[in-house]
Design a protein that fits this description.
single chain, globular
Length: 124
């Protein structure tokens, strides 16, 4: 059974930082691209970042480019998202997702599994 468990969310002031983690189990983590997606209240799911299976290539939505960094540790089966220079518009539930292999920073993210999410709230 595929399981993805996010952690690290919280309340932070504008300009602050957070580091999200996602531990994976039930599949061969190192064989899959992994993504972070988010959903703000009243809005649809938005792709944030993707990293290829070997970690060599990363892709970001324009709205987070230069502020967020995706990384992975295949030995620990863990996916990370470093969020810096946070803005109020980054407030959302953040989800770790398996796949896809064809998202390059825009458009829908066609993943097959995602976790339960971790809430990020940016507010003064």
């Amino acid at each position: 059974e595929v399981q993805l468990a996010e952690s690290g969310g919280g309340l932070v002031q504008p300009g602050g930082s957070l580091r999200l983690s996602c531990t994976a189990s039930g599949f061969t983590f190192s064989s899959y691209s992994m993504s972070w997606v988010r959903q703000a209240p009243g809005k649809g799911v938005e792709g944030v970042a993707r990293i290829t299976s070997n970690g060599r290539n990363t892709y970001y939505a324009d709205s987070v480019k230069g502020r967020f960094t995706i990384a992975r540790d295949n030995r620990q089966k863990t996916l990370y998202l470093q969020l810096d220079s946070l803005k109020t518009e980054d407030t959302a539930m953040y989800y770790c997702a398996r796949g896809p292999g064809n998202w390059f920073g825009s458009g829908p993210v066609d993943y097959d599994y995602r976790g339960q999410g971790t809430q990020v709230t940016v507010s003064s």
